[in-house]
Amino acid sequence: MMNDFNSDDVREVEVLVQGIRRITTKNWTVMEVCGGQTHAILKNGIDQLLPPTIRIVHGPGCPVCVTSMEVLDRAMEIASREDVVLCTYGDMLRVPGTKSDLARVRSQGGKIRVIHSPLDACKVASEELRLGTGRQVVLFAIGFETTAPATAMAVRAAYMQSLPNFSVLVSHVLVPPAVEAILSDPEHGIDGILAAGHVCAITGYEAYEGIAERYRTPIAVTGFSPVDILRGMLAVVTELESSKGSDSCNTRVINAYSQVVERTGNSVARRALEDVFESCDQVWRGMGTLPQSGFKLRSKYQAFDATDRFVSDFGSIDYPALATIQNPCRAAEVLKGKIRPTQCEAFGKHCTPAYPLGAPMVSNEGACAAYYHHQTRHDPDVLEG
Amino acid sequence: MTNFSFVCPVPDPLVDFVTQSHGAGGKLSQELIDKVFLPAYGNAILANKSDSGELLVPTKPGRLAMTTDSFVVRPLVFPGGDLGSLAVYGTLNDLAVQGAEPLALTAGWIIEEGFSICELRRLAQSMGDALRRCNIQVIAADTKVVERGHGDGCYLTTSGIGWIRDGVAMKADRIEPSDRILLSGTIAEHGMAVMTYRNGVEFSPPLQSDCASLWPLAEKLLAEVPSIRVMRDPTRGGIAASLNEFAEASKCCLRVWEESVPVRPQVRRACELLGIDPWVVANEGKLLVVVPKEDADQALRIMRSDPLGVDGAIIGEVDSTHPRKVIAQTRFGTHRIVPMPTGELLPRIC
Question: Which of A61, A160, B43, B72 is the most exposed place for a label (fewest CB within 10 A)?
C-alpha cells in the first residue's frame, strides 16, 4: 500500500481515549485555542471519540479569522494603488472586509502576490528595484507568534539592505492576551484550555502560568496530531478530575508537547521579536480591542511601516458600529467559544466557504470552515440537511 | 554629407520571438507551421494544409464522443510534464473515462507576441512525443497571435473525437448501493507538482506530475469488466469533486476509507506543509472507477497489472445511508463529510 499512515498512532489514540473515558466523572468544557487543532479535531473526528461528558469548544486561534476589518480594508486600499505590489498569505485573499476582498481587488487589477514566507516579499522588493518599476512592495504581515519571527527577519533584512521600496502592514496578534480576555468573561463556561504548541515553541509558556493561576483553569500545551491533542486532553481532564472543581490545584500549565516546547521557548526567535516589535493594543475581529495583544514596529524600524507610508482616506468608517449591524454572522461568539459554528443561523445556508459571511468560514483553519468541511455524524441535522 | 546606409538587418524570424506576423496567415505563418508544428507532430492530413481534417468513421456499431479542453497551466514546463503533453493527455483522458477510444485531436494555439519560438518548439515537440506515445494524430490545427500583454505566454486548446462501442455507457446514475469504488493510484501529484514549483517551494527530489494517458488502462478495464458503472479522471477538485459528482448523480452515499486512499509520503508532507487536503488536489493520470461489488476484485487485478495502476486500491463502497453525501471513514473509526471543494486552493499561513 502506497501510504505512510502509521498504525502506531491508531493504537495510541485508543489507549488515550480509554484513559480519558476511565477518569472522566463530570461534565467538562475544554477549549482548543489553535485553528490547526480545530481542523485536526474535526478532520479526524476526535470529538466523536470522547465521552459525551466532554465538550470541545473552539477558540480564536485562526489568524486569518481575527484579522480586523480595519486592517483588511487598509490592505485592500493599499493593494488597489497603481504603484504597489501587496504580498500576502494565500488564505487572506477571500476574507471579506467591509466592501470587498483581496481576491476581488486582484481581479480588478490590484497587484497581489501570494507568498509563503515574509522573506519572499523582500525578494519581490529587490526584484522590483532591480527592474526599475518604481513600485512599492508591501508585506501584509498577519498571524500569531508563529509567523511574527519570520516577519521580524524580513524587516531586519530590509533594514540591513536599506530596501527603499519595502514596507510592512503589521497586524500580528498574540495568543495569551486573547486567552486571558476569554477567561475574564465571567460567563465563559470553560473548564480547561489546550494551548497551541507551535506558538509556545516560540514564546514558551511562562505567559500562561499567570493566566492559569488567576483564572483557576488548567492549561495544557499540545501539538496538532490526534495523539498530541488527546494527550493534552488527558492532561487537562486529569487535572480537572483530581481537583473536582475545588480551587486547590486547577492552576497548572502542563506541557504535553515537551518534545517540541520548552518553558522559555526559542531564544533566537524571541530576540528577533524583541528587537523588531513592541506590544500594543490590537483590534481582533469579533473580539474588539484587547490590551497588549498585538505587535507594532519599534521606532528603529518605523521607516518600514506601511501605515505611515501610505496615507489612508478610510478614516470615516465606524467599525465598532459596523460589527453590530453587519449581518447574521455570529463569528464573534464562535471565536470566543460561546457557540459552535452549527448554532449560527447562517451556517451552511447563507454562509458557506464559497460565499462566506464571516472570516471563520474562509480559512481552512477557521472553526466554521472546519465544521462545514468535516461535519460529522454528531450533528445529524446538518448531515441529513 | 552624412553617410547613409540603407542596410535593413533581417533577423531570422524563426530563431527568436513570435510576432503578430506569425499569426497573420502569410509567409511567416507558413514558416511557423513548416518549421515548428509540422516537424513536431505533422502527418499526412496536416501536411495537406486544408481547412478541415478528414477522418474515417468506424463502421462498427457505436457512438461518437467529442470533448474539448483549454490548457492554461503555469508554469508551462513543470516536473513530469508541460503544456504540450498535458494538452494531449488531458483531452484523451476526458474521452477515455467516457469509454471512448480516441480517434483524433485538434490543436488551437493562442500565443502572445514576443513568446520565444525556441520555447514554442519545445512545447510542440513534447506534444508530438505524447501523440506518438498514444498513437493518435492532430488532424486540424490553428494558431493565433495576440498582442503583447494580452496573453500570458501561450495557451493551448485541444479537442478530441472518440468512438464508444455499443454496450458501453459510462454514467454516474448507474451507481448502486453495495458497489465498490476503485482508484488507480496515488493522488494529488499533478496539482502539488505544479503548485510547489510555481510557488518556489522546493522539494528534493521535486514532486512529479502524474500526467499520462489513461486510455490503455481504461480500455483493458472496459474489455475485462463490462459491468463498470462509471469512470472519471479526478482533475480539478481532485477525488473529492469526482466522488461528490458520483454521489449527487446516483443519489447514493459514497463511503471512503481514508487509509486506503494512496498518497505518496512526499506529496502528503507537501500538502501538510501548505495546509491543503490531497483529496481536493488535481490529478492528470488517475482513474476513479465504480464497479458492482462482485466484480471489484477482478477490476483491481486488471488495474494493478497495468503500469498506470500498480498502486490501485479499492477505496470505498456505496450505500444508501446518507444520500448524495461522500463520507470519509478515518483510521480512528470516526467519520466526516467530504464536501464538494470550493474555489481556488489557498495555501495557509502557518
Answer: A160
Asked, for residue B28, whether it belongs to a domain, the answer is yes
E-state strands within B56-98? 62-71, 77-78, 81-82
Comparing A261-270, A310-319, A344-353, B323-332, the range with the smallest average pLDDT is: A310-319
B336: nearest CB among A42, A89, A365: A42
* CB within 8 Å: A91 and B343: no
**B110 and B57 in a common domain:** yes
User: Which residue range forms the structural domain that includes residue B183?
Assistant: 172-337
Complex ipTM over 0.85: no
Task: Tell me how far apart the alpha carbons of residues A7 and A224 are, in angstroms, rounded to a whole number.
Answer: 17
Choose the final residue of a domain: B148, B165, B182. Answer: B165
Q: Give start-end residues of each CATH 3.40.50.11740 domain in chain A.
A: 30-315
Nearest CA in chain A to B265: A4
Grid look-up 487537562 returns: A236
Query: Nearest by CB to A365, which of B260, B335, B348?
Result: B348
Strand A219-222 relative to strand A192-196, pairing: parallel
> pLDDT per residue over B228-243, tens digit each?
999 999 999 999 999 9
Answer whether residue B6 is part of any domain: no
- Taking residues B156-184, report their average pLDDT: 97
**Confidence (pTM):** 0.88
From A2, A46, A353, residue closest to B186, measured CB to CB: A2
Contact assignment for B342 to A352 by CB distance below 8 Å: yes
Nearest CA in chain B to A45: B334
CATH topology of domain A30-315: Rossmann fold (3.40.50)
Q: How confident is the model at residue B273 (pLDDT cuts 50, 70, 90)?
A: confident
State the Cα torsion B95-B97-B99-B101 to the nearest 10°: 40
